[in-house]
Amino acid sequence: MNAFITDLMNTDFLYWHWWLFSVVLFIIEVIVPGTFFLWMGVSALIVGALAALFPSMETSVELLIFSLFSVVSVVVWKKYQSKNPSKTDHPTLNQGGAQYIGRVIQLSRPIVNGFGKEKVGASFWTVRGLDANEGTKVKIIAVETTVLVVEPVDEPVT
Length: 158
Fold this sequence. Notes:
Elements: H1 2-10, H2 15-31, H3 36-53, H4 59-83, E1 104-106, E2 115-120, E3 123-128, E4 137-144, E5 147-152
Parallel strand pairs: 3-5
Antiparallel strand pairs: 1-4, 2-3, 4-5
């Protein structure tokens, strides 16, 4: 491993090596999305531009700059994303039953000993709540993995 690092440090990287490396990283980003490789590719482009402007820059300095830019850009992007989540017209997409919270349904089967089965949407769900007879109107108040938590209500079915 030490020989590899020594050889790498003694290799002269030209600006176009960095640009080619950035293209490879962009292709990887397309195949494995997640914006991680995108920022590494941008960092490689920047280092390539610096290598073109300063051709005498040593490889160790180029690798250091690439590493720093990569880490900083990924961290900054992740912080930005956490503070500014993407807006969507389907915020509960891929969250199972979260889309059903607040919906009032009429039980087609009773809830016995706190549990029952009910078809909601296109799927059958386990429902948990107070024992209730068939035909009782219940409101879905929470989702716990694959269980809809319900409570009896006097509202119309939605």
